[in-house]
Design goal:
Elements: E1 2-5, H1 6-11, E2 25-30, E3 63-65, E4 68-73, H2 75-81, E5 92-97, H3 105-117, E6 122-125, H4 131-139, E7 144-146, H5 154-161, H6 165-178, E8 183-189, H7 195-207, E9 211-216, H8 233-247, E10 257-259, E11 262-265, H9 270-277, H10 313-323
Parallel strand pairs: 2-5, 5-6, 6-7, 7-8, 8-9
Antiparallel strand pairs: 1-2, 1-4, 3-4, 10-11
Helix pairs in contact: 7-8, 8-10
């Protein structure tokens, strides 16, 4: 059995649902039980299918990851449908793998099965222990591997992920040196970090050729952080802008100014900053190529953190206002979301 995001299932003709922003990547969830204890994840510590502590594991029910529902399908259903994906629609396959007692052996077998039926580039985000684990994924035919850091504050990492940020980032950077341009990571904004901490780490990762996927922390039922607030939109927009400017090598962290950990200046004039941000690309979903993750962080009627499509002129104007510190219109970013990842 394999789980597909709702939008992916719709694109493959396995579900009939209305979507207003189709995924450009097929999102697959491999594995039934995770041995990690990430405080922000409904699948942490072997939680059940509904994300509740101690819930009975049921393979026939949908799982939750982020705000996305992942429905179960047989491997055969998926492998039969993948080659029939509409041309020009899905451009990549992303497999999210849980940490299981069996390690990545079953995941590696599944990757080989997918590669037989599809020529789409494949990326994998799963728990790896060493460079040797990453080498196995590449040998199986994976194009990109993501080692998710998630929390960028060392104390928050230890508290929420039960590990060492230094050791994890060292592994990621070592892999980036061994496989240039083929590594990615995830950063979740809103886990006790300052904007300065986030920007400083992003610059280091980007300089190493690592793709950074930004997520906004999402409080979810059944997790230890259900009462933890989502990040302020202004904070998220400034970090998005910093990520875009650093990635394009338009600024450096040393040229930026911070006050109490908050970005005060990007080291650019207001006119030049607006010019760089005016097409709205900075506020679209970041990460691997062709990944738009529709509505992973958003709730119906809530704030649009990551746009899965080009922004309208009004949306660009409001986003830039947030970057500049004018957060008075945050509520206007909320809209009814009919889509699914």
């Amino acid at each position: 059995m394999i789980r597909l995001s709702q939008g992916t299932a719709a694109c493959l003709g396995l579900k009939k649902i209305r979507i207003d922003a189709a995924p450009t990547t097929a999102y697959l969830l491999h594995g039934e039980r995770c041995r990690m204890s990430c405080a922000f994840c409904p699948q942490a510590g072997g939680k059940g299918a509904k994300g509740e502590p101690g819930a009975k594991e049921t393979t026939g029910t949908a799982h939750r990851l982020g705000r996305v529902t992942w429905s179960p399908f047989s491997r055969q259903e998926l492998l039969t449908r993948l080659p029939r994906a509409a041309p020009g629609g899905l451009k990549r396959i992303c497999i999210q793998g849980v940490k299981s007692p069996a390690g990545n052996a079953e995941l590696l077998q599944f990757i080989k099965e997918v590669k037989v039926v599809s020529t789409l580039p494949l990326c994998v985000s799963t728990w790896v222990e060493s460079e040797a684990d990453v080498a196995q994924l590449f040998e199986a035919g994976v194009e990109r591997v993501s080692i998710a850091l998630d929390a960028v504050n060392p104390l928050a990492y230890t508290r929420f992920k039960k590990g060492s940020l230094q050791r994890r980032s060292d592994l990621l950077l070592n892999c980036a040196r061994l496989w240039p341009g083929r590594m990615s990571t995830h950063i979740i904004v809103g886990l006790m970090e300052t904007e300065e901490e986030c920007v400083t780490l992003m610059e280091k990762l980007l300089q190493a050729g690592i793709r950074v996927a930004l997520f906004a922390f999402t409080p979810l039922k059944g997790t230890a952080l259900v009462a933890h607030p989502a990040p302020q939109l202004g904070t998220y927009r400034r970090i998005q802008a910093a990520h875009f400017l650093l990635q394009k090598q338009l600024v450096t962290c040393s040229a930026m100014r911070f006050q109490d950990g908050r970005i005060q200046s990007f080291g650019l004039s207001g006119t030049l900053l607006r010019e760089y941000l005016r097409d709205g690309t900075a506020f679209q979903t970041s990460g691997c190529p062709d990944c738009n993750r529709p509505y992973y962080n958003e709730r119906p009627g809530g704030v649009m953190y990551n746009y899965p499509r080009p922004l309208t002129g009004t949306e660009v104007k409001e986003a830039i206002q947030c970057v500049s510190g004018n957060e008075g219109k945050e509520a206007s970013h909320g809209r009814k979301l009919a889509g699914h990842l």
